[in-house]
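[Discussion] Sanity-checking designs against the backbone

I'm trying to build intuition for which residues belong where. Below is a structure token string of 102 positions. I'd appreciate it if someone posts a full sequence so I can compare it with mine line by line.
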């Protein structure tokens, strides 16, 4: 369920204050944050945020396409290592199959 339009997007206050102060000072530093629930707002565009995924901080460079999404969407919490090492061996075919050349 989405958030009410009259409330506006949710952004943690300390995070928004850091970004606004950096925008006024015209600085570009990496900001560490644990707030995966914060929504990306236009003020964040061009900044790099280090979003915590539960184990380490993942650097996320914010672009215009990310506005409206949550920070947690850009730092995955699970690493897919692939399926098991067992591979199914294909059965060798002896000659043309049914309906093949004669």
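Best answer:
Here's mine. Compare freely.
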């Amino acid at each position: 369920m989405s958030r009410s339009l009259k409330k506006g997007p949710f952004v943690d206050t300390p995070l928004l204050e850091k970004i606004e102060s950096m925008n006024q000072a015209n600085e570009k530093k990496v900001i560490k944050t644990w707030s995966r629930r914060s929504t990306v707002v236009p003020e964040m565009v061009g900044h790099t945020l280090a979003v915590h995924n539960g184990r380490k901080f993942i650097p996320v460079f914010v672009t215009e396409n990310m506005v409206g999404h949550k920070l947690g969407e850009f730092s995955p919490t699970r690493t897919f290592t692939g399926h098991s090492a067992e591979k199914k061996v294909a059965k060798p075919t002896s000659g043309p199959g049914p309906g093949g050349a004669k």
